[in-house]
Amino acid sequence: MLNIKKYSFILFLTFGNIALSQTATLKGRITCENKPVEFATVGLQGSKYGIQTDTSGMFLIKNIPAGTYKVIVSAIGYDRAVKTILLKENETAVLNFELTANNATLDEVVVSGTMKEVSKLESAVPVEVYTAKFFKANPTCSVFDALQNVNGVRPQINCNICSTGDIHINGLEGPYTMVLIDGMPIVSGLSTVYGLSGIPQSLIERVEIVKGPASTLYGSEAVGGLINIITKKPSNVPLFSADIFGTSWGEMNTDIAGKFNAGKKAQSLIGINYFNYSLPVDNNKDGFTDLTLQNRISVFNKWNFERKDNRVFSLAGRYVYEDRWGGDMRWNKSFRGGDSIYGESIYTKRWEFFGTYQLPVKEKILFQFSANGHDQNSVYGHISYMAQQYIGFGQLTWNKQLKRNDILLGTTYRYTYYDDNTPATATFDTTGNSKNLPSQTHLPGMFVQDEISINANNKLLLGMRYDNNSIHGNIFTPRFNYKWSSQNKKNVVRLSFGNGYRVANVFTEDHAVLTGARKVEFLSDLKPETSWNGNINFVKKIVAKNGTFIGLDATAFYTHFTNKIIANYDTDPNKIIYDNLDGYAISQGVSLNLDIALNNGLKFLLGGTYMNVYSVENNIRTRQMFTENFTGVWNIGYTFKNIGLTVDYTGNVYSPMRLPLLSDTDPRSEYSPWWSIQNIQFTKKFKKGFEIYGGVKNLLNWTPNKGNPFIIARTNDPFDKEVQFNANGQAMATLNNPYGLTFDPTYVYAPNQGARGFLGIRYTFK
Question: Domains plus CATH for the chain?
Answer without folding.
Answer: 21-98 (2.60.40.10), 109-229 (2.170.130.10), 230-234+255-430+438-765 (2.40.170.20)
